[in-house]
Amino acid sequence: MSKFLIFILLFFFILFSQSILxxxxxxxxxxxxxxxxxxxxEKIITRELxxxxxxxxxxxxxxxxxxxxxxxxxxxxLFNSVIIDTVKLSPNNYSINITLVExxxxxxxPILEQADRNFSSWLKSNDLSRSNYGLFFxxxxxxxxxxxxxxxxxxxxxxxxxxxxxIPYLNKSQSIGLELLSSYFRQKEISYATxxxxxxxxxxxxxxxxYFNSKLNINYRYKLYNTFNVSLSYFNYxxxxxxxxxxxxxxxHEQTLLPVNRNYFQNLIINLNxxxxxxxxxxxxxxxxxxxxxxxxxxxxxxxxxxxxxxTKFKKYVKLNSVIFFxxxxxxxxxxxxxxxxxxxxxxxxxxxxxxxxxxxIDGQDFFIQKNNFKIKLFDKQKxxxxxxxxxxxxxxxxxxxxxxxxxxxxxNIYSKPSNxxxxxxxxxxxxxxxxxxxxxxxxxxxxxxxxxKYNGFYINxxxxx
Length: 466
Prior knowledge:
mainly beta; Ubiquitin-like (UB roll); 16-stranded antiparallel β-sheet; four-stranded mixed β-sheet; 24 strands; 55% strand
């Protein structure tokens, strides 16, 4: 009996020892080889890696590190293809090979776009005059340093002339970046109020609204997934007198303005924000999480306008198995100081909305938006078209997902008008749709939804739902 117990103890001791040895086993990275980066500097690529030359990685963590590094490089949007693998040089001594196919970086193209809040609203308006046209030049990966230069000359419904420059890293450690923006807008037709939760428009032969804005943004990227931003924006508005006859609170009530500045407004906006970005894709994420917190101070220069708000967004993506995915998000805004300014009361239906309410807008000072989405992958294919000689264009990607969703929101508006019944009311929608991902990160969504006011509709969108 004692021999049997000794045998059992030795057996489990050997198993336990092997487990400990397996956990402690690691590989040493002695070299990193990067292939295919014709224009992109190596430091831009290595900045995205979870490891460096000279690191030792636990054997059971190798695949996780390689996978996450691949996702980080893909999220720079500089490459059509990223392949990372290991080469064993000697026992526990490895080389990392990174093979890349770069994208096309210079895009001069004509502008022909709808100018409404979203594509579905534009289709419903059936008004081709709400279209923009012009020229747009975008240089991605300028100087091979992932810098971006944009120049735009846009005419039509909403005229815009703009120049934008972004450099992600100014310092040697690649942690501090800079962005500069200058832009001029003008319109002969604008929305001046909200009635029945629809924007009300007025047009003229003269420009009803013009404004110039410039922005300076400085960001600090801590390690891989944390970014802190501070930005200062300057706005200089001109509003035609006719607009104030329709809505005295279009900007702020005229009694708070200096008499000489009835048509001209200047204000500064300061933003302090933090983001945690750890999703497998920033275009169409399927796993990971995202957090964004922003504090905004909007202060008038030639007037008494004063507004302070806090916003936060949290998004969670879960891969349930190889084809089924779940996503959920929460978007909150709370205004500590607010005004009845029409153009600074946009809440739902502008930059963010819930499906089933694409045609509507809800103005307010505080809100919450919550979204949920189940999706099933139908197919996912990447293919190289050999008859196309340029590597920047011969790698194609197609994927499709069928999904069901439930979304809800609440907008608090202390200046609500009786006609806007969605204000200060819980709204929600359910529905189903199909998403298609294709060439150069293009997304197409076809959806049918039903909301709690018993409105049904078919909608088309061009961004990820969550």
